Amino acid sequence: MIIWLNGAPGAGKTTAARELLHLLPGSALFDPELVGAGLRAMLPGERLAGVEDMRELPSWRRLVVDTAAALLSEVRGPLIAPMTLVRQEHRDEIFGGLAARRIPVQHLLLHVDETFLRLRVERRAAVEGDAVRRRCLSRLPRYRAALPWLTTDAHAVDASRLTPRQTAELLAERVRRGDGTCRIVQTPPPAAETLAAGVLFFDDRDRVLLVDPTYKPGWEFPGGVVEPGEAPARAAVREVAEELGLRLERDPALLVVDWEPPRPPLFGGLRLLFDGGRLGDDRLADILLPGAELRGWRFAAEDEAERLLSPGRFARLRWALRARAQGRPLNLEAGVPVGA
Questions:
Q1: Which of 2, 199, 318, 320 could be joined to 276 by an S-S link, Cβ 3.0–4.6 Å?
Q2: What pTM was computed for the model?
Q3: Measured distance CA(272)–CA(232) in Å, rounded
Q4: Domain count of the chain?
């Protein structure tokens, strides 16, 4: 198990984590900062140019998951990870990767009122220097902006007036109670190329329906991986029923088939998008999301979808909309029509 201690820079996460080690038998400290330090030592300077925060590196997020899994093969656990995560897509990628390896996560938010937080930062800066003050205070706006989703996802513990030992005792109590346990679908990572089928639904303004997974970053189309021996259109119907609670009366029409080339560590494969048609208010009322898999849905116009989707998914959507308008499916390779 991972106990992820989130919170603002300077909130005392690492100090509380060290105290918590004495209260949870078998626990070990897992500091993701050390993963970043290793990458800084190994990556060439040109790759690190302009990278202020190692959390922005996909390799850091992958290595955090892999390192946690490796540590848990050596120690009993739980692992206590004191690390600020303010981007929800980073939370989804890391926690989803841990869930795929059957590693449960308890997400605890160590919250300190800003007045007390600034006092702690000043005390720390008096020992470690002004660079600590600048770094901590410069990241406060991002933490404030993230609080709406953080307080929904994590179990908050107010440590404003507590000593590190008192904070650790309160955290230990909440851990034993199971507070902050993340309910995330355990989707094993692919071991080879996959065939996936998605469905596009539209509203009366021709906006497309997108869903927000809990186990990977970014927004997505409803759908999923086609099982061995399963027809792709039937897989699309099954996935839509499982994810949204929507029943399709017939197999949907194909819009695009896209070959996604392998890009290590991803294997790629074939991606199909089908036309699910328009959804009226009566059918929208039937949408019921599986909380362990999807946290939300929304309709998005094409320009909005470009901001929400990865470049590869958006390219697929763009051509699917044109295929729908033309009334014929398109064959793509890496998001580009074959022969274009």
A1: 199
A2: 0.90
A3: 8
A4: 2
